Automatic annotation (TrEMBL), chain A:
UniProtKB keywords: 2Fe-2S, Iron, Iron-sulfur, Metal-binding, Oxidoreductase
Pfam families on file: Fer2, Fer2_2
Residue ranges occupied by any 2Fe-2S ferredoxin-type domain in the UniProt entry: 3-80
Protein name per its UniProtKB record: Xanthine dehydrogenase YagT iron-sulfur-binding subunit
An annotated Gene Ontology molecular function: 2 iron, 2 sulfur cluster binding
From TrEMBL, chain B:
Keyword Flavoprotein tagged: yes
Residue ranges of domain FAD-binding PCMH-type in the record: 1-221
Cited InterPro entries: CO_DH_flav_C (IPR005107), CO_DH_flav_C_dom_sf (IPR036683), Diverse_Substr_Oxidored (IPR051312), FAD-bd_PCMH (IPR016166), FAD-bd_PCMH-like_sf (IPR036318), FAD-bd_PCMH_sub1 (IPR016167), FAD-bd_PCMH_sub2 (IPR016169), Mopterin_DH_FAD-bd (IPR002346)
Alphabetic keyword roster: FAD, Flavoprotein
Native source species: Loktanella atrilutea
Protein name (record): Xanthine dehydrogenase YagS FAD-binding subunit
Entry superkingdom: Bacteria
Length: 165, 351
């Protein structure tokens, strides 16, 4: 039984040998690959703090066994910015006070990036709230989070159209 | 988690071969890993079936029926434009369940196989005949609204938590199964078992069998213009149903020509009573036949713990789902899928 996996993590191919099939993607990132930006909240798929993009889709890293990920592409909060240039969702969270303590923020941002890619919500606040319901914010910064996702959605759509964002 | 062996078969045949008592299939893992972390499930072997290409894809067959691979994710199915057009109440049910992240991971077969959310099943210190036969049922005198009012027994009073299965039962979906003895089909309405004296037996699957696909018959598309799923829950999003209903009508010349009605979260399986559907046929879609059909669907309901209020709530949920279906399927999915707070035409509800 081979537990060697190769995955593309934040744009870099990583070959990883797992000594235990119980390792989740969340624990792999935090404890073995020195990427603690992805947070552990409930560890049971309820809070969304561990949200990453797996093959472009937002997923709970705590409910994903690392051993299943040979050939996968994973993006974490550490891989979102382009050098010092923040991702539009990161900028929008800063400008709209989309957080207080910040613990849930990486998961919120990765979930928002996934939601915007899904194209489900647009800039409709009610659809955004529904689409972000898998991310709990204990500080209740939901108002700012919703505004941040609205604004990022608009800016990214404008950038895609070729407007000055 | 307890330590386990991990295997990744390359074919369905190989998967069936490596299965043994104590092994589990890993699809999306959203329910399985949660239960393994809680010590509720302790498999010695996890068989990862995600490499099996045969279990993927959404295909229209020659007879017009739709075949959905076991590993199609809830989000992939709900977002498939053709699917949402032809089977809108199934898409609405899918989108009313779990969260965006979980819907991306969770599979259609896993939705059928998910375990009860009864608090006493998940608490390994509580008595639960479903988790550990013969230990009793702490839910009977307990505090949990995910309990049945129909089809329960002394041994177990729990419900099946799925949204997806409720409209599937209404539309006569079929489950394609493969096992050591070959392939067979099970009607979704017969797939989940009532607890009786053996609550540990939850589905019609035999040991070692695997779901390979679901099928929806072609005639189920005939309800697309008047089909809704309605879900009453503690929050407007990301909560299991307290009661739910899938209602579908085929209306011809202002009269109901055919009706389907299935209720969720009140029994260990989606609750469909064809006699209740028959009461609707030949009538204009109106309050009186809706009342009669809903009452007939709940016929025989009794409390299983302190949950008598669920009987009235389920009846009203059924009536309102029928009213929503009669008003017509909204052109766009409501902002809050299946929510009583979403306006029926898909506009905002200001909850």
């Amino acid at each position: 039984m081979s537990l060697s996996i190769s995955l593309t993590l934040n744009g870099v191919v990583r070959d990883i040998v797992l000594d235990d099939p119980r390792v989740t993607l969340l624990d792999l990132l935090r404890e073995r690959l020195a990427l603690p930006g992805t947070k552990k909240g409930c560890d049971r798929g309820q809070c969304g703090a561990c949200t990453v993009l797996l093959n472009g889709k937002r997923m709970n890293a705590c409910l994903t066994l690392a051993a299943t990920l040979d050939g996968a592409t994973v993006t974490t909060i550490e891989g979102l910015a382009d050098g010092d240039a923040l991702h539009p969702v990161q900028t929008a969270f800063l400008e709209n006070d989309g957080f207080q303590c910040g613990y849930c923020t990486p998961g919120q941002i990765m979930s928002a990036v996934g939601l915007i890619a899904e194209g489900r919500a647009g800039d409709d606040p009610e659809r955004i709230r529904e689409g972000m319901s898998g991310n709990i914010c204990r500080c209740a910064a939901y108002h700012g989070i919703t505004r941040a996702v609205q604004e990022a959605t608009r800016r990214m759509a404008a950038a895609e159209r070729g407007d000055a964002a | 988690m307890k330590r386990f062996d991990f295997v990744q078969p390359a074919s369905v045949a190989e998967a069936l071969q490596v299965w043994h008592p104590g092994a589990v299939w890993l699809g999306g893992g959203t329910n399985l890993l949660d239960l393994m972390k809680g010590g509720v499930m302790l498999p010695d072997t996890v068989i990862d079936i995600n490499r099996l290409a045969d279990l993927r894809g959404i295909t229209t067959l020659d007879d017009g029926s739709l075949r959905i691979g076991a590993l199609v994710s809830n989000a992939e199915l709900a977002d498939d434009t053709g699917f949402a057009h032809d089977f809108p109440m199934v898409a609405e049910a899918l989108l009313s369940g779990a969260s965006g992240q979980l819907r991306n991971a969770a599979t259609v077969a896993g939705n059928l196989m998910q375990r009860t959310r009864c608090a006493y099943f998940q608490d390994t210190t509580a008595a639960c005949n479903r988790r550990e036969p013969g230990t009793g049922c702490d839910a009977r005198g307990g505090v949990d609204s995910h309990t049945a009012v129909l089809g329960f027994g002394d041994a177990c009073i729990t419900t099946h938590p799925s949204d997806f299965c409720v409209p599937l039962a209404a539309l006569d979906a079929v489950v394609e199964v493969q096992g050591p003895d070959g392939a067979r089909e099970v009607a979704l309405r017969d797939f989940h078992l009532l607890p009786g004296e053996t609550p540990e037996r939850e589905t019609a699957l035999q040991p070692g069998e695997i779901i390979v696909a679901l099928r929806l018959p072609a005639d189920a598309k005939g309800f697309a213009a008047h089909a809704r799923y309605l879900k009453v829950r503690d929050r407007t999003s990301y909560a299991f149903a307290t009661t739910s209903a899938a209602a579908a009508l085929r209306v011809e010349g202002g009269v109901i020509a055919e009706a389907r009605l299935s209720l969720g979260a009140i029994a260990a399986k989606p609750w469909r009573v064809t006699e209740a559907e028959a009461l609707l046929v030949g009538h204009a879609p109106d309050a009186a036949p809706f009342d009669q059909a809903a009452a007939r669907a709940l016929d025989g309901a009794v409390p299983s713990n302190d949950n008598g209020w669920k009987i009235a709530l389920a009846r009203r949920t059924a009536i309102r789902a029928l009213e929503l279906a009669a008003a017509g399927t909204p052109e766009r999915m409501p902002a809050l899928p299946a929510s009583p707070f979403a306006d029926q035409n898909g506009d905002h509800a200001h909850v």
